[in-house]
TrEMBL record:
Annotated protein name in UniProt: Tetratricopeptide repeat protein
SUPFAM superfamilies, sorted: TPR-like
Domain of life: Bacteria
Length: 137
């Protein structure tokens, strides 16, 4: 790639900020067609759709990225982070975090995300118990 990934991301964000959706999408399609085996173009497309608030399309592209690099540390971290940040499919998010922890046990990001998920789950369980009349823990 002649442009750095950071430059491409900045260009994508600029297009999206200026609401030049066709230019943004074309930029990402060029990335994907130039390097179809790389996961990063698919993550850029997921980002594109997430900015447009099209969660189902964003999920589809995140999954495409992970298919290309199912055990790549960065791909798992990006995918798990996107699933968490966008409040997408909790089951898939947890699966990605567990895979990351299994393959990269020293990766602090996976441990941090796992802790956040557990904290969120505990809060939800406490809320449900409180609403059903149980005493909160």
């Amino acid at each position: 790639m002649s442009e750095s990934l950071l430059q491409q991301l900045e260009q994508l964000e600029l297009y999206l900020l200026k609401e030049e959706k066709d230019n943004a999408k074309n930029l990402v399609f060029r990335m994907i067609t130039t390097h179809p085996e790389d996961d990063i173009g698919y993550f850029f497309m997921a980002y594109y759709y997430s900015v447009l608030r099209q969660k189902e399309e964003a999920i589809r592209w995140i999954d495409e990225a992970v298919q290309r690099a199912p055990e790549k540390e960065a791909a798992l971290a990006i995918a798990a982070g996107l699933y968490y940040d966008f409040s997408l499919n909790d089951l898939k998010r947890n699966e990605l975090v567990e895979t990351g922890l299994r393959l990269y046990p020293d990766n602090h990001f996976f441990h941090g995300l796992h802790a956040q998920i557990n904290e969120q789950t505990n809060k939800q369980a406490a809320s449900i118990g409180f609403l059903s009349g149980d005493d909160p823990p």
